[in-house]
Amino acid sequence: MGRFTAEEDQKILDLVKEGLEWPEIASRVDGRNTKQIRDRWNSKLDPELKSTTEPWTEDEDALLCHAVWKSYSGTPTPSTRRCSRYLAH
Q1: Quick one: 64 exposed, middle or buried, by C-beta within 10 A (0-12, 13-18, 19+)?
Q2: Where are the domains of the chain?
Q3: Which of 35, 36, 27 minimizes the C-alpha distance to 5?
Q4: What is the pLDDT of residue 75?
Q5: Which of 13, 15, 53, 79 has the fewest CB atoms inside 10 Å of its own CB, making it the most exposed?
Q6: What's the whole-number mean pLDDT along residues 3-32?
Q7: Cβ(40)–Cβ(4) under 8 Å?
């Protein structure tokens, strides 16, 4: 099966709202297996996911930079240089 359709997405959303488990949801979406359903939810449909088109908040930026800086091994990378500049503010 190819890409998920809008109808499949809506069906998954509705079935998750009912509290069904992944295998049960997969059995109700023709041509899809449990892994495909779970992956679709976790990567695209979960309303808790932050849109990649929304800008990050200042707190999210700081949290990421602190995590990158904490894992810094001593060899500068583009990420550590950006975070160094950010944290210098």
Answers
A1: middle
A2: 6-45, 58-87
A3: 36
A4: 72
A5: 53
A6: 96
A7: yes
Specify burial of residue 45 (Cβ count, 10 A radius: 0-12, 13-18, 19+): middle
pTM: 0.59
Residue whose entry in the numeric block shows the structure tokens 């992944």: 22
- Is 6-45 assigned to CATH 3.30.200? no
**Structure token pair of residue 8:** 């499949």
Render pLDDT for 40-89 as a digit per residue (tens, 0 to 9): 999 999 988 877 677 878 888 888 877 877 777 777 677 777 777 766 66
What is the phi/psi pair of residue 16, to 5°?
-65, -40
